[in-house]
Specification:
By secondary structure, the protein is α/β, with parallel strands linked by helices. The protein has helices at 38-46, 123-126, 129-142, 157-168, 181-189, 204-211, 227-236, 270-274, 289-297, 316-323; strands at 2-8, 11-16, 27-35, 48-49, 52-53, 63-71, 83-86, 102-105, 114-116, 149-153, 173-178, 195-198, 219-222, 241-243, 248-250, 254-257, 278-281, 307-312, 331-335. 26% of the residues lie in helices and 27% in strands.
Length: 336
């Protein structure tokens, strides 16, 4: 079969590889769509980070949907012909991912590693459920009230999904900051953000303070993964204060980090200490796939407008090159 294979930083090639092997506890999925994740870009550009290194020969792609074409002898409740999404592959050399015609899921367990895709959800939307899962987890980690102000820095797919999830749970004050005009316009058009900030033209910290009467955001979700946005997040989040009426200290706000950073950050953390600010990291979103499917099926989250490009598998290199152009891309899908 054909697959997009990593050969070194900036070097991904579509070539013939062996067909995936069916395990007794697994299934084989024919890929219908696979999304490029920001983590795939980090691996492709620089060979990954310390916690997630790339190896030559690796096939990336962990955001995919497809049709079950083979079922192992020990697998229960999963059948040929079912439309599914799955997790657990595309992150290591020994478990190839979805930038290919077929993928093996070595351990297929319904509602644990494999999830049925309802007819109401297209394969393209199915390939975007994984980033939506991350958005759900980011919203849970920040845990804002409906009255809180949430600032999102970086409106790529994770920022867009996080904003839609927050709207779905009733948060009414969402501020989006981004350098890509297309991504900002999209967030405003689909109603995911109440205020949008072009970070190339305005100071995000000043705008957030202005929008919150000088208080700061209750929750900041950092989705860009660059030193500038990290510093902005820490400086724009609400500090602790003493409430005279309640006669108690109100803790500071929360900064939720969802991005992967390619470069070290020089940082003096005193503001967190003095103002009781929580700095929280998160990765993925185990256990939230059913919630993501429900949000899309019921129309509370609309993933279709987030698809900016669709490339065939044999143009995988062009797809990766396009992804890093923030003025052009939001979500890029590859289809065999």
């Amino acid at each position: 079969m054909n697959a997009a294979v990593y050969h070194g930083p900036g070097d991904i090639r579509v070539e013939k590889v062996s067909d995936p092997k069916l395990e007794a506890d697994g299934i084989i999925i024919q890929i219908k769509a696979c999304g490029i994740c920001g983590s795939d870009i980090h691996r492709w550009k620089i060979g990954g980070v310390k916690e997630a290194r790339m190896e030559v020969g690796q096939v990336l792609g962990h955001e995919f949907s497809g049709e079950v074409v083979e079922v192992g002898a020990n697998v229960r409740k999963i059948e040929k012909g079912q439309r599914v999404v799955a997790i657990g592959v595309g992150l290591r050399l020994e478990v190839p991912g979805g930038f290919a015609e077929y993928v093996s899921i070595p351990l297929a367990r319904l509602k644990r590693t494999v999830f049925l895709l309802p007819d109401e959800i297209s394969y393209e939307e199915g390939a975007m459920l994984e980033p939506l899962v991350v958005g759900i987890s980011a919203a849970k980690k920040g845990n804002p009230t409906v009255q809180d102000t949430v600032a999102i820095l970086g409106m790529g797919i994770i920022g867009q999904c996080t904003a839609q999830v927050l709207k779905a749970i009733g948060v009414s004050n969402i501020i989006a900051s981004e350098i890509g005009k297309k991504r900002l316009a999209l967030a405003k058009t689909i109603g995911a953000a109440d205020i949008v900030i072009n970070a190339l033209e305005e100071d995000p910290i000043e705008r957030v303070l202005e929008a919150t009467s000088g208080v700061g955001a209750d929750v900041v979700v950092e989705c860009a993964g660059v030193p500038a946005t990290f510093h902005q997040a820490v400086d724009m989040v609400r500090p602790s204060r003493f409430d005279m009426e309640q006669k108690r200290l109100i803790p500071g706000g929360k900064v939720v980090l969802t991005a992967i950073y390619e470069r070290p950050i020089e940082w003096l953390p005193n503001r967190l200490v003095f103002y009781n600010i929580d700095l929280l990291g998160m990765m993925g979103g185990e256990g939230t796939f059913p919630a993501a499917i429900d949000l899309v099926k019921t129309g509370k989250v609309d993933l279709k407008p987030l698809i900016s490009h669709v490339f065939p598998l044999d143009q995988a290199r062009e797809a990766f090159d396009t992804h890093i152009k923030t003025d052009e891309s939001v979500k890029i899908l590859i289809k065999p």
